[in-house]
């Protein structure tokens, strides 16, 4: 009876298991939709039965796991369906190339193969499919070039090829005919060149998305001559010049995003004169000068999102904003605005306000507590002052995410804060001038609080045990205050805690046993306190721990071998304690220091649109450095300034991703192991002020990334290995070793000692020109860098700002290491 069935739609019906081959008996089917509700519910290792459905015109197999099918066998089955017009197989686990047999489907109009794993070149045969209307292969690991002939397809309307590695010259692409094109989306690829003026000839274009490519040149005037254009996204490129005034005539445009380019010039009312449909405007992070401050200008649009960061807004807020009654998201960060107008809080739909890094002064506006629609307010890095206002009991309280850090807020944290935190998930009062104790009431009603940052204030007294009632906390930062007493054992109740900073206080006592209950913790920083006792053995049970910083305390005893059980550990800092004994064996178990395949983020605590930005200060290359945006890439072991003894273990060389190793100011003896040369990513090595003897291993010359070396004040002997890289280090790296000789020391060696058969002849394998170049570069960089380090070592504030700047540069370079990734 079902053999005459023509239409079968079982999409998202909740079925699981294997696809039944009996479906192949439904030979009259015209439409078959088996779209799965998830990518793992339905699967098949053989869909050859599809070839029996010769009348099929529409086939949808999205989210069905076909990864177990033989390579290209799925395409051979589908290619027999000569009447097929619609083929969608997104997120099916397909691998290999996009099979050429699909070009046999001459009637095909829709081809969607998103989210698969082709790892191959874009198939050029697609340009021969003359009936194709919609082509979609987003995020399918395609590379190669986009064929120019695609523009000649007479019916092609929609192209979605985002998040691949496809290369093309944008000028050549848009020189084609594109008779019917309405949508062209190729974000996050490798498109290059300048947008040609001929793009204005594509009169049918509705949506153009070229975000995150390598486009240069100016935005052509002709883009403003496409009357059908509704969405324009050219963000994250290298476009220059002014924004053409012609864009202001796009009456159907709903979205324009030009952020993160190098656009310049003045923006006036004329740029928006005809944009009566505009809902989303993002001109931030360019070099634009927004000059629409006249009080009598009424814009033709009602925006929902406005982002004007770094648009040279100075003084007062733009008056036209008070008429934007549909506004939900407002970002005016990184300008020089002063004073928050009262009408801002009257915008009825406002959900997110980002005003960081302006010159806002005066008290915290009390209206902040009464806008029920607000979800995220960022006022950090301004000049706000005065006390935290106490709202009436009828007030809504803090918005769910509030950042007031880096201001001049004074006084104490009011005991009534419990009422303010009724709906809070994120609260940062860091880097202000708050005094007094942390009130026990802080967690009485905080049922949703995930991030609490009180660091960088003048808080004193004991941290209240009531902090353990904040059961939803994932991040607690009370570092850099004046807290006293012991670490509350009640912290062990916070089983979801991922980040705990209590550094730079006056805390004493032992590390509480209850912390072993915090099994999700990734970062534990208790540095610069008066904590005594030993490093607890149970620390090895914190399997997710990635950063352990206990430096500058009063810890004694041996380093427990359980530390080596922490396979995710990437930073271990136990410096400046009173630890004794040897380095524990089995350092090679520290897997995260052996592999570069670490997670790209430290913590996944959301702050309404972006991740919580973790920051840790480490001593690297003889100076304190702040690590923030690149923290997940850092690996370091610092055991300096203790009383450790014994030999440096040979398996330290197995930590091939280790970047910083500091064992200075201990009592280590024996030789520097040759195996250390296997740590090819090592950037800083300090074993100074120990009792090491023997020769400097020649293998150190293989460490091409090493920019800091200190072997001074030991009992090393023999000739310093002569190599282009070691020659770049100054005399101070080797002083205090009486029996050491050779450059850069002034002590000459009487004779060249013979090399052992196992040592690599580094010197003979280096080109003389290369050696001279490296020496010159080393001296030049050393003099310049030395001057910079001299300044930074004197001023702590400059030092922090400098490394925060470096982290910001890295964030910009890898900005959409975010963005879709």
Summarize the structure.
With 821 residues, the protein is mainly β. The protein is built from 6 helices and 55 strands. The C terminus is likely disordered.
Could you explain how this protein is built, in words?
The chain is mainly beta and 821 residues long. Helix content is 8%, strand content 21%. It is built from six helices and 55 strands. The chain has a 28-stranded parallel beta sheet, with no helix packed on it. A seven-stranded parallel beta sheet has the order 42-44-48-50-52-54-55, with no helix packed on it. Strands 12-14-16 form a three-stranded parallel beta sheet. Helix 4 crosses helix 5. 42% of the residues are buried.
Care to count the β-strands? 55
- Helix segment count? 6
Radius of gyration: 32 Å
Terminal CA distance reads 49 Å
| Structural class determined from secondary elements | mainly beta
Mean model confidence by pLDDT: 87
How would a textbook summarize the main sheet? Answer: 28 strands, parallel
Task: List low-pLDDT spans.
Answer: 603-609, 752-821
């Amino acid at each position: 009876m079902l053999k005459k069935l023509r239409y079968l739609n079982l999409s998202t019906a909740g079925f699981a298991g294997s696809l039944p081959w009996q479906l192949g008996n439904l030979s009259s089917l015209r439409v078959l939709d088996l779209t799965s509700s998830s990518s793992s519910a339905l699967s098949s290792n053989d869909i050859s039965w599809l070839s029996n459905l010769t009348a099929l015109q529409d086939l949808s197999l999205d989210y069905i796991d076909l990864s177990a099918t033989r390579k290209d066998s799925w395409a051979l089955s589908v290619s027999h369906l000569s009447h097929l017009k619609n083929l969608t197989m997104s997120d099916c686990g397909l691998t290999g190339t996009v099979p050429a047999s699909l070009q046999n489907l001459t009637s095909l109009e829709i081809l969607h193969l998103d989210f698969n794993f082709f790892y191959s070149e874009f198939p050029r045969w697609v340009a021969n499919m003359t009936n194709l209307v919609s082509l979609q292969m987003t995020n399918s690991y395609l590379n190669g070039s986009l064929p120019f002939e695609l523009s000649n397809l007479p019916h092609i309307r929609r192209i979605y090829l985002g998040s691949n590695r496809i290369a093309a010259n944008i000028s050549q692409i848009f020189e084609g005919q594109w008779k019917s094109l309405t949508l062209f989306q190729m974000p996050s690829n490798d498109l290059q060149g300048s947008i040609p003026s001929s793009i204005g000839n594509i009169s049918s274009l509705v949506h153009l998305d070229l975000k995150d490519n390598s486009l240069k040149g100016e935005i052509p005037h002709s883009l403003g001559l496409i009357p059908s254009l509704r969405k324009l996204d050219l963000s994250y490129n290298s476009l220059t010049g002014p924004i053409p005034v012609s864009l202001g005539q796009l009456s159907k445009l709903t979205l324009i995003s030009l952020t993160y380019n190098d656009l310049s010039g003045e923006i006036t009312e004329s740029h928006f004169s005809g944009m009566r449909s505009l809902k989303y405007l993002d001109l931030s992070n360019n070099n634009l000068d927004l000059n629409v401050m006249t009080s009598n200008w009424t814009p033709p649009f009602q925006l929902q999102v406005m982002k004007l960061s770094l648009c040279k807004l100075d003084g007062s807020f733009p008056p036209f904003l008070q008429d934007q009654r549909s506004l939900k998201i407002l970002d005016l960060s990184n300008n020089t605005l002063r004073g928050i107008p009262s009408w801002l809080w009257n915008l009825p739909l406002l959900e997110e306000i980002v005003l960081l890094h302006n010159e806002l002064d005066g008290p915290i506006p009390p209206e902040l507590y009464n806008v029920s629609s607000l979800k995220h307010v960022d006022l950090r890095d301004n000049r706000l002052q005065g006390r935290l206002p106490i709202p009436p009991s009828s007030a809504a309280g803090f918005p769910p995410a509030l950042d007031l850090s880096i201001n001049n807020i004074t006084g104490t944290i009011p005991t009534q804060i419990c009422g303010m935190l009724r709906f809070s998930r994120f609260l940062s009062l860091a880097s202000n001038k708050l005094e007094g104790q942390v009130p026990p009431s802080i967690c009485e009603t905080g049922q949703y609080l995930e991030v609490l940052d009180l660091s960088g204030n003048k808080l004193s007294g004991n941290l209240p045990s009531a902090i353990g009632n904040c059961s939803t906390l994932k991040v607690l930062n009370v570092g850099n205050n004046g807290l006293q007493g012991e670490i509350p054992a009640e912290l062990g109740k916070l089983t979801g805690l991922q980040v705990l900073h209590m550094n730079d206080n006056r805390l004493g006592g032992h590390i509480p046993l209850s912390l072993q209950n915090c099994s999700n913790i990734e970062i534990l920083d208790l540095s610069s306190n008066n904590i005594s006792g030993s490093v607890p053995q149970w620390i090895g049970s914190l399997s997710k721990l990635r950063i352990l910083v206990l430096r500058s305390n009063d810890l004694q005893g041996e380093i427990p071998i359980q530390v080596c059980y922490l396979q995710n550990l990437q930073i271990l800092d136990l410096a400046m304690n009173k630890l004794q004994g040897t380095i524990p064996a089995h350092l090679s178990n520290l897997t995260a220091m052996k592999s570069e395949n670490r997670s790209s983020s430290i913590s996944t605590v959301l702050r309404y649109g972006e991740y919580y930005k973790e920051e840790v200060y480490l001593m690297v290359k003889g100076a304190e450095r702040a690590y923030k945006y690149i923290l997940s890439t850092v690996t370091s072991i610092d055991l300096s300034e203790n009383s450790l003894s014994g030999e440096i273990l040979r398996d330290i060389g197995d930590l091939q991703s280790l970047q910083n190793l500091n064992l200075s100011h201990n009592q280590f003896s024996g030789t520097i192991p040759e195996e250390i040369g296997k740590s090819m990513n090592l950037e800083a090595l300090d074993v100074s002020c120990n009792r090491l003897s023997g020769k400097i291993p020649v293998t150190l010359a293989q460490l091409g990334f090493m920019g800091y070396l200190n072997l001074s004040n030991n009992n090393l002997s023999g000739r310093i290995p002569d190599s282009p890289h070691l020659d770049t280090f100054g005399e101070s790296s080797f002083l205090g070793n009486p029996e050491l000789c050779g450059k850069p020391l002034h002590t000459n060696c009487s004779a060249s000692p013979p090399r052992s058969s196992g040592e690599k002849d580094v010197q003979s394998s280096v080109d003389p020109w290369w050696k001279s170049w490296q020496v010159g570069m080393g001296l030049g960089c050393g003099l310049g860098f030395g001057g910079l380090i001299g300044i930074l070592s004197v001023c702590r504030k400059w030092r922090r700002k400098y490394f925060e700047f470096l982290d910001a540069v890295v964030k910009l370079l890898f900005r959409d290491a975010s963005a879709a990734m």
